[in-house]
Amino acid sequence: MNIFIPLLAGLLLGYLLKRAGKKPNLEIPTSVALLAMIFFLGVKTGEVHVDGLWLFGVSTIFAVFTVAGSLLLAEVAK
Question: Quick check: pTM over 0.70?
Answer without folding.
Answer: no
